Amino acid sequence: MDATFDPDCVFCKIILGEIPSYTVYEDDVVKAFLDISQGTPGHTLVVPKTHVADIFAYNPELAAAVFSRIPKIANAIRKSNPNIQGMNIVNNNGAVAYQSVFHSHFHLVPRYTDHDDFSMTFKDNSSKYQPEDYIKIQRAIEAEMED
Predict the structure, then answer these.
(1) Pick the CATH number of 10-121 from 3.30.10.10, 3.40.1080.20, 3.40.50.150, 3.30.428.10
(2) In which region does residue 62 sit, left (phi positive, over 0), alpha (psi from -120 to 50) or beta (all else)?
(3) pLDDT of residue 1
(4) In sequence order, what are the residues at sequence separation of 6 or more whose Cβ sits closer than 8 angstroms to the Cβ of residue 129?
(5) What per-residue string of b and e applies to 91-113 under the rule 16 or more CB within 10 Å gives b?
(6) Which residues pair with 44 in a beta bridge?
(7) pTM of this prediction?
(8) Where can the motif Histidine triad motif be found (predicted)?
(9) I need a surface site. Which of 13, 49, 64, 120 has the fewest CB within 10 A?
(10) Alpha helices in 43-127 (DSSP H)
(11) What is the pLDDT of residue 122?
């Protein structure tokens, strides 16, 4: 797989070895390394070795290659600590969605308890929607689906 790099991207610099990292897995497609923040112990980032800003820049081949490696890495993280009870896999796209490094990456965040200093909450807005609202959204998305 041909890789492209952005000389100003911190993740590209990590991939090229210009910035050290605690790498847990690497092949020709991805590099997985510990997130320096360690939201919980074992918090790992999986990044494609080609510079793509976000999920919207993936083609089907890159998506298949990157996504197919995530279960292997997630299982290794889980097996590394018998106290891991679950895992959040998070991918933020765009500043409004909390993306802070604009090189696509997936956070694999081990979960130890429901009080382990990591949280994700979703507000329930269902009371604001009627069936016709859901149908309108559904149809707009369906109209944009590519074969």
Answers:
(1) 3.30.428.10
(2) alpha
(3) 46
(4) none
(5) ebeeeeeebeebbbbbbbbbbbe
(6) 34, 108
(7) 0.91
(8) 103-107
(9) 120
(10) 60-67, 70-80
(11) 83
Amino acid making up residue 108: L
Q: How many CB atoms lie within 10 A of CB 66?
A: 21
At 2 the pLDDT is: 54
pLDDT score of 117: 79
Q: What is the pLDDT of residue 119?
A: 81
For residue 41, give the amino acid letter: P
User: What are the residue boundaries of the structural domains of the chain, listed by start?
Assistant: 10-121
pLDDT number for residue 116: 86
User: Other C-beta atoms within 10 Å of 64: how many?
Assistant: 11
d(CA 48, CA 100): 16
The rounded distance, in Å, linking the Cα atoms of 98 and 51 is: 19
Mean pLDDT by 10 residues, the chain (147 residues): 83 97 98 96 97 97 98 98 97 96 98 87 90 94 87
Distance separating alpha carbons of residues 142 and 136, to the nearest angstrom: 10
